[in-house]
Write the structure tokens for this entry.
Amino acid sequence: MNFLNAAMLAGVAALAIPLLIHLFHKSRFKVVKWGAMHLLAAVVRTNQKRIKIEQWILLAIRCAIPAILALMMAKPVWQGAKQMLGEQPTSTAVLLDNSYSMEAGRAGITNFSIARDEAQRLVGELKPGSEAYVFLMGEGQGLLDHASRDLSAVTQALGKVGAGYGVARVPAALDFVAGTLDKMTGNARQVVLFTDFQKVSFPAADERVFAQSLDRLKKLKFPPTVTLWDVGVEAKENVAIESLDFPKLMVGVGQKVQIRANIRNFGDTARPDLRVTLKVDGREKPGPAGSQLSLAARSAGQVLFTHVFAKPGSHVIEIETEADLVKADNRYLASIPVREKLSVLLVDGAPGTTPDDLKSETGFAQIALSPFFAGKVEQADLIQAKVVPVNGLNAKSIAESAVVVLANVATLSDDQLKALEFFVNQGGGLLVFTGDRTDAAWWNGPFAKSLAPLRLGSMAGDPAGKPGATTAKVTAERFGNPALEIFNDPRNGSLSDAEIKAWFRFKPPERTGGPGDPAILARLDSGDPFLAEKVHGQGRVIACATTLDSDWNSLPARPSYLPLIQRLCVYLASNVYPPRNLQVGEQLVSFLPADMAEKMARLTLPDTRTVELLIVKKGERGVVEYPQTQRPGIYTLQPPGNPAPPPLHYVVNAERTESDLTRMTDVEIQALAKTHDLKIVRSAAEFKALDKAQRYGREIWKPVLLILLILLFAELILQQLFARRRRKV
Amino acid sequence: MAHVSDFLTPADLQRISSLQVLARVVVEGFTTGLHRSPHKGYSVEFKQHRQYVAGDEIRHIDWRVFARSDRYYIREYEEETNLRSTIILDRSGSMNYKGSSPGAVSKFDYATRLAACLSYMMVHQADGVGLVTFDDKIRRYIPPRSKVSHLRLIIDELEKSRPGGETELGQVFHDLVPKLHRRSLLIIISDCFGEVANFLKAMAHFRHARHEIVVFQVWDRDEIEFPFRGWTQFDCLEQDGVKHLIDPAMVRQAYLENLAKFRDELQFGCRKQRIDLVPFFTDEPYSKALAAYMTRRLGRA
């Protein structure tokens, strides 16, 4: 027997109260000179024994009631035979919330530092032979790969852990730990979850998921006890940059880029002069207007920055507000690759006699893509177009390009189609124009099976443009696609100006709206689709109902032609690269030239550690993958080579859900504990007491309470029984 | 009709220190308005004639009958028209019990006042009255007389008497029988505590001697209701050193059962011997006692 609240045992002394009352009453008796003694004496003589027994019974019950009440309040723990096992080692899984919200706390002491220190102590004080496993919920991974019996190593490693990671997902963490616990060896198992009880960590909507995760733990062969260790000191004041709006299309050197930061004040205090700064590649941009922002309590605002990149390459922009305790959401990062050159491969299905023959299928497009080069102007084009005949399309030429344009190509060989499919799958862009050579059978056959967004129907209009023949125009509308957004502003020209003499009628898509379903980007006034897009793997395919040159339309003669072709290519190229702006936990993927394959690339992590990563050859590319992007910040990938090629920057931003530091109320916490039968502790002492109880026995206050109630009833009933005579007057 | 004594409780009457005065107040209050006043008296009344036998006193011969019938007849009268009563007063320790209620009188005080009232009334009706006081033995015997000066003697004795000692009804009454030569009305004022069987045996002895008996059993309410609460030590009034420390609530029921049994036995025994057992409570007026006596007296008349 043990007691969780041993101080209350002092209350057992209260058993003396009924005793004292009894003695007091007995000592303060009245004296009556009695005459009818012959009546009384006989009664006393015959009943003396019974009376004494009754008195003793009542006295014993009355003494027992306060004593048992005190006993119950002392929270007795029945140890039974388990006491012998008291020193047995335990298997402990510690779940440490190191999400960035744990950086909140009091001045100098963050919630996380308290949690970490307590966790260190907890692991350090485990019985020899115990094994421990620490799961970092913010990072979504274990501190060590496996449970360890080397407790000092675990505590040491714990000492190096920091907060500032992404969102702590409690159910997911419990599921993960369930797997590890199952492999642990001790019979006595426990899960200790250090948390700040932030509302977002235990969303009401996830209650069922949470219950399922706990159920999974309970169904283990040796179900662990689950204790929630409350380390929360609520700190409401927090300003977070929620998101950045920056160009989705590829950015070229010299282009003016607009970056908009969305900032929210989660606190109850207004921030009248919040300073917001823009850093480019780590250097602060000298203060443009708008870097001061006034935010009312619990409101949001925006700050707009503009920037022109002077150099190509991988750039990182960083918007930062004045620091509050929770640093991770005070800045938002964006990796913007700035390109000097964008390789576009034009596959000419109807080549002319010379490469720059305007009668060729790609002549106009080539000029539109590289106007400076075509105009022999001393200025660099962003896009570098290369024209090849159909037989020049192969895996190598494809791999060198960001976008492939098929212009009036009749058919492709299976190999070519396969290479193209792989290319698009890996994030490449494909732009397809129809024409008189287009083989509808091939298109609707192998091409439609893999890449074509829509099947081809009949041809419409008259390429010769005879008078009276049906013509069409692109419907003027508000375009939602980033490639066509430019035409929403009439100053940039209108697609409707051009006359479409002939076009293929695309068959309407079977399904729309779902992921991977075709989308119509623009329509003709005849109702037929003009541009249709389909996402294929990581890349995109856009098909146009008419020709790239002026055979079937007058587009090349219109001012809108150049921006249309350039925008389409840039839009498609913008997807060429695996995303560089990642959310916490998203896999970092980089495509490198195939000749770098089998070499090691060096990745510098946000905490300045570096990891060497093997470049794996996949198709015509070298691929680097790094999945552990739990820490928000800049990940710099240095590809191998001599001289070293420019580094690539990837940024990982945490979801901003943790920025709302609102804590669960005590009532909610109690309800959570009650619903799921969890124990909540707030200090090491509480945990020790609870641990002792859980490991060495079980609390028996319930049966004690039952005994107490029985005694109370017994006292009442016996008293009534014994004193029944008193009522029968 | 209301009497003075109906408005005077024993507690009020207690203030009247002189038993003489008390007895007068009570009795005259009681007798006022009675249909048959005791003051009218009961004259010597003729009973029967019987033939003269040798040895009869000649003065008792009815000469008028002799004149008519020429035979000697003796004129017989009621032997004694005046009632002879003896009040037998228990002055044992148990009679000294005084109730717990404020203004209560002890059973003995009640009993002496009762005896005084009775004596006063009897003497004023020209009935003879005597007094016996006893505890474990006879303490005083005053033979019955009907003179007014005799009343003084009785009342003095009543005032002098102090309760104490044990009760031994059976033995005392047996001892008393030979002293009461002539049959008379015995008024026993006692709590009758003791062995019921002995008491009844003594009563039987009295009855055998052809005495009329009325038992005025004096009770205190406490003895009937046993209303005590909290730890109480009961010290015996008759025997020193006999005491019981008890929680009265625990024994009350048993006590009441025992009491009921005692009273039932007593009642049954008395009825069997045609003895009136009249219970008195110290908080009741004496008039009840006087009424009981009167009933008896008239019944005899």
